[in-house]
Amino acid sequence: MKRNYFIVGLIFLTFFVISLITNILGALNPDVIKSFNLSLTLSAFLPFAFFIAYGVMSIPAGILVEKYKEKKIMIAAFSMAFIGALTFSIFPHYLVFLISLFLMGTGMAMLQVAINPLLRVSGGEEHFAFNSVMAQLVFGGASFLAPMFLTYLISGLNETNSNNIVKTIFGGLVPNNLSWVSLYILFTVVLLFMIIVILLSRFPDVERNEDEKSGSWATHKSLFKNKIVILYFIGIFAYVGTEQGVSYWISKFLYTYHNYDPVTIGASIVGWFWGMMSIGSLIGLGLLKLFDSRRVLLGAVILATIFLSMSLFGPSRFALITFPMVGFSLSVMWPIIFSLALNSVESHHGSFTGILVTAIIGGAIIQLFIGWLGDNLGLRTGMSFVFVTLAYILSIGIWANPIIANQTIKTKAVAATN
């Protein structure tokens, strides 16, 4: 099939939007807590509302995509996210925010299921690996830029000069004490734009590989009886809980323990956390050509543990450097755990993928636990729970026994001589 560069570009743009909406919550956290006078537990319900949508929608989304095709599902997904962003922009209250985040999370879950097979077909199977890496870089880039957008909007709205462009556009749309809500007004416009673009676009027919088909409910139930499936489900659960359990609380931690301004310093460090994840992904690609993925995973967990310890218990100047380095260390964990999981079963990879994506609810459940611990024992203690999830990820590097190991330069050379 002829490659469709427009659709490839549209998918990259979709990854950008998904990342903007998904990973901005950490930078927003201190402002939301202050605006709505929230405890840490109530604050943790915000990412809970967003990420629990993945548990609800990931498997059904796969079935819906096969029935109604990618274009209709992407329109439905962006429409749901648009309704969520618009509703909160009009009614900026805590309970409305929870409902809106669930709607946006549902839309993002549907998009994640729909766009990967579409990328394979539009960009060509022979370029799928390269395009997938590019998509992750776009995703990381958006996560890096999102806190900068937030800082720009809040700083502009708080300026005494009433003639700046931010005040001109958003000044009459948001209350004075809720300047961060302007970001969701911006999201509303972006999501509407995406709906219009997709409506006007012509999509290719996607013939799904056997491994990309979602399978029946019976298949999913049978997989859940497999011990390996459960172990890797917990692995993805632990990873997303780790990633979000650090990124969501960085800005609040820096403000609470080191008195750094969340709008400037806090948001910037959250951005660098995601930026370093992108850089780490590139370096990880090279490491996986040199070493067995299990060894790379073990090394990454050890580094993440060291940097997180320095971030939580070290001096303030260390935290500004080591929090982003935690992101750098986490960067290879998702693809390694995911690939080890799929390479550990012989069939039903499409259904298994749906189960693994459902495990993203770890970003919801673990946040609540961190928030509850933070309210009762302090945020430093709450964030220390991440050491437990890292310990489980470390165990994967020890007990994992995939049917097919990742190919390194050494194993490729051995295979060539045989």
What's a quick, concise take on this entry?
80% of the residues lie in helices and 0% in strands.
Question: Any overview of this molecule?
Answer:
- By secondary structure, this protein is an all-alpha fold.
- The protein has one domain (5-417): Growth Hormone, Chain: A (Up-down Bundle).
- It contains 19 helices and no strands.
- The protein has helices spanning 5-22, 25-36, 40-90, 94-123, 128-158, 165-170, 182-200, 217-223, 227-247, 250-258, 262-290, 293-313, 316-330, 333-342, 349-358, 362-377, 379-383, 386-399, 409-417.
- The model has no long low-confidence stretch (mean pLDDT 88).
Provide key terms for this protein.
418 residues, mainly alpha, Growth Hormone, Chain: A, 19 helices
Structural class: mainly alpha
The multimeric state of the shown protein is: single chain
Distance between the termini: 35 Å
**Portion in helices:** over 70%
User: Low-confidence segments, ≥5 residues, pLDDT <50?
Assistant: none
Tally of individual helices: 19
Which homologous superfamily in CATH is the superfamily?
A: MFS general substrate transporter like domains
| C-alpha Rg (nearest Å) | 21 Å
CATH fold group: Growth Hormone, Chain: A
Number of domains: 1
Instruction: Count all strands and give the number.
Output: 0
Which geometry do the CA atoms define? globular
Elements, N to C (H/E): HHHHHHHHHHHHHHHHHHH
Can you tell me the CATH class? Mainly Alpha
Largest beta-sheet details: none
Residues in β-strands, percent: under 5%
What's the architecture in CATH terms? Up-down Bundle
Overall average pLDDT:
88
